[in-house]
Amino acid sequence: MSIQERLLHSVEAIEEHYNAGDYIFREEATPQFYYQIVTGEVKLNSYKEDGKEFIQNILSDNSCFGESMLILGKPYPVNAVALTKCTILKVGRDQFFQLLQEHPEIFLDMYKTMSEKTSEKIVLMRKITSENAEERLMELMNQMKDSKENKDKFSFEIPHTRQQLASLTGLSVETAIRAIKRMERSEILIIKNGKIFY
Question: How far is CA 99 from the centre of its chain?
Fold first, then answer.
């Protein structure tokens, strides 16, 4: 879900630029802004006690993030980190709520999107608790492919690295790589030029 850029600019959106590795916000910070990606990729992550990264989501062009915590007024449970060079529009809390009041249809779209994300997370969390690495990876890949029109086998190029797939599913990189190889042997996916097609 994204809000038209002209509407964001109408409430004094600020355009900011980030380099790969830059933090947009940190875990436990108090939300002050609505964020929307114009170009680039952002990951939402947290770290376990042992220092292992867990990626909650990877977002790209036109995606918004941090809006649920802004609405709730609670500290961020994750970090937002630029994965690539990014251009992001941000709107202050007061201006964001003014926009929602003036355009209630935006709030309805946002509510629907948040509900879909929550539903996907519940399903993914159920699979992530599985000991079966292939099940975890297949659920994640199914969710990524679900929004695409072409549902043919091997039609979808997985846009993430093996490290990112591991972090998104709570697996070690080694376990994810072994599971992906088993999935290739079982013809669940194919690998062409190092890229995974599902």
Answer: 24
pLDDT, average across residues 184-195: 95
Q: Where do the domains of the chain lie?
A: 5-121, 131-197
Architecture of the domain whose range is 5-121: Sandwich (2.60)
Q: Single out the residue of 172, 168, 188 nearest to residue 180, CA to CA.
A: 188
Q: Are 66 and 117 in contact (CB under 8 A)?
A: no
User: CA-CA distance, 55 to 165, in Å (whole number)?
Assistant: 9
Q: Which CATH class is domain 131-197?
A: mainly alpha
Q: Over the stretch 69-118, which tens digit does the pLDDT of each residue have? A: 999 999 999 999 999 999 999 999 999 999 999 999 998 898 898 888 88
R_g (Cα) of the chain, nearest Å: 18
Buried b vs exposed e over 62-88: b needs ≥16 C-beta within 10 Å? Answer: ebbbbbbbbbeeeebebbbbbbeebeb
Angle between helix 133-146 and helix 173-185 axes, rounded to 10 deg: 80
pLDDT tens per residue, range 114-169: 888 888 878 777 767 778 999 999 989 998 898 788 889 999 999 999 999 998 89
